[in-house]
Amino acid sequence: MTEKALEVRHLIKTFGGGRSLFGGRRHMVTAVDRVSLALRSGETLAVVGESGSGKSTLARMLVGLEQPTAGDMMIAGQDAGKLRRQGARAFGKVVQYVFQDPVASLNPRKTIGEILETPLKLLSGYGADKRRARMADLMDAVQMPADTLSRYPHEFSGGQAQRIAIARSLAAEAQILILDEPVSALDVSVQAQVLLLLQELKQKFGLSYLFISHDLAVVEAIADRVAVMRSGRVVEQGPVEALFGSPQDAYTRQLIGSAPRMRRTDP
Ligand SMILES: Nc1ncnc2c1ncn2[C@@H]1O[C@H](COP(=O)(O)OP(=O)(O)OP(=O)(O)O)[C@@H](O)[C@H]1O
Questions:
Q1: Does ligand 1 have an atom closer than 6 angstroms to the CB of 152?
Q2: What GO biological process terms are annotated to this protein in UniProt (predicted)?
């Protein structure tokens, strides 16, 4: 893999503008405003900021759920748009997205085995026996029992469901994960366990994480570097110790000042 897992340059996304049905001007929102940042291979880059600062829009553009208004996006050294045009298979083998609400992200009508089967069929090209073995390995990797595969999403707690969603994101053997508030819906004690699991998986499989969060305690526990967003802009970025130790920007200082702390979860 190239040195940079992800890179965006001067990325802009505006919503609205133009004329409404009734002829009035629609209010324009610049959700992402000339953002430049890079996720290096093997690191966790946290993007942090209050609600509405543009974090999710940034993540959604990277995986093609939103189209940028302007700017460049590179994924594993390739233009993101070009990579996506190669199809879901090519794209899914490079980058995966993990959602905030794990239970809602799993199809309630399918067993966990069926849920994992879909990306394995689409992305791995393995036969049935190999797929079964791979599913058992994935459950093992996320520390869930093998009988998980025959059960349904509603049978699991939020933390267990997020482990399963993480297993699904690993099925394609993509090395870049975009984690959009992956522990925000979980209790604090469960958050710590899932963060520890993410750290272990990152080391084991050589993953790179773009970790979106509004929670500085979580970010301090998991990130190598942090980018702070406010009103669509990156106001400060740097290594986690430097950013928390001596924040340069007034807004970063204010965010840190009002946040509870959490211990780091290095395995
Ligand atoms: N589809 C959309 N149409 C119009 N405005 C949007 C759309 N999506 C996001 N926005 C606006 O863009 C801005 C950034 O939103 P975004 O969801 O990216 O922020 P966020 O930091 O992820 O917040 P949250 O943590 O609440 O999700 C907000 O002002 C939001 O209202």
A1: no
A2: transmembrane transport
Give the count of domains, the chain: 1
Q: Is the CB of 55 under 6 A from ligand 1?
A: yes
Note whether residue 149 is domain-resident. yes
Bridge-partner residues for 74, per DSSP? 7, 79
Q: Give me the CATH number covering residue 106.
A: 3.40.50.300
- Domain of 131? 41-67+80-257
Q: Take atom 2 of ligand 1 and give the residue whose Cα is closest.
A: 15
Instruction: Tell me whether residue 267 is in a domain.
Output: no
Q: Backbone phi, then psi, for 22, in 5-degree steps? A: -95, 10
Query: 138: CA distance to ligand 1 center in Å?
Result: 33
Predicted model pTM: 0.91
Instruction: Tell the residue nearest (CA) to atom 26 of ligand 1.
Output: 51
Asked if residue 18 belongs to a domain, the reply is no
What residues contact 108, with CB distance under 8 A and at least 6 apart?
152, 153, 154
Distance from residue 52's CA to the centre of ligand 1 (Å): 5
Residue-by-residue pLDDT tens, the chain, 267 positions: 568 999 999 999 999 877 776 777 778 899 999 999 999 999 999 999 988 999 999 999 999 999 999 999 999 999 999 999 998 888 999 999 998 888 888 999 999 999 999 888 877 778 889 999 999 999 999 999 999 999 999 999 999 999 999 999 999 889 999 999 999 989 988 999 999 999 999 999 999 999 999 999 899 999 999 999 999 999 999 999 999 999 999 999 988 887 766 555 555
Locate the ligand 1 atom nearest the alpha carbon of residue 54 and give its number.
18
Report yes or no on 121 lying in a domain: yes
